Amino acid sequence: MKLLIGLLLLLAMPAANAAEATGSISWQAPDAYVNGDPLDPLVDLDHYDILVGNTSRNYDITSIEVAPDGTAASVQVTIPGTFQDGDTIQLYMALTATVKNDPATNPAWDGSVSGYSNEVLKTFVVSLGTSPPNPPTNVTATFTITCQAPNGVTCTITATN
Q1: Domain 12-125 top-level CATH class
Q2: What tens digit of pLDDT does each residue of 87-120 get?
Q3: Core-most of 14, 64, 133, 148, by most CB within 10 Å?
Q4: DSSP state letters, 3-61
């Protein structure tokens, strides 16, 4: 019975399905290959991938391809799931760089992908706007009790806090 009541209460709580996260990410472009040879990002890179996930080094939410002509991007991510008021959402982000697969301009490389950049973690707390208000303050009360004594006399008792 307690389990049933708990499940009914959980189902009655407001929830949000999926969440849209919009933000920006910036980075410093690589200037060398792993072997030390110089790299010109505008000439040698095909694209960056912005990787997003909800656990460290598991970028399972999305991968956003970005042209190599900049070092910043705006991103919009749909975070799957059902969220309750007060839940915490964590987004882990990293980038990779992919070399152009063009034998004419870059004969030594064939679309190789870099390792992951450093990882960025952003934490959000869900607020569904259903939070209750603060309680009333400075409450005072005055009560008057009217009673009848056994001898027929009426008495009045007043109490104020």
Answers
A1: mainly beta
A2: 888 989 999 998 887 666 665 566 789 999 999 9
A3: 64
A4: HHHHHHHHHHS-EEEEEEEEEEEE-PPP-B-TTS-B--HHHHEEEEEEEEESBTTB--S
CA distance 41 to 69: 8
Contact of 30 with 42, CB cutoff 8 Å: no
Q: What is the pTM of this model?
A: 0.65
Residue 159: strand, helix, or coil = strand
Residue (of 137, 139, 145) closest to 161 by Cα position = 139
Longest dimension (CA), the chain: 116
Q: Domain coordinates of the chain in residue numbers?
A: 12-125
Encoded amino acid at 87, one letter: D
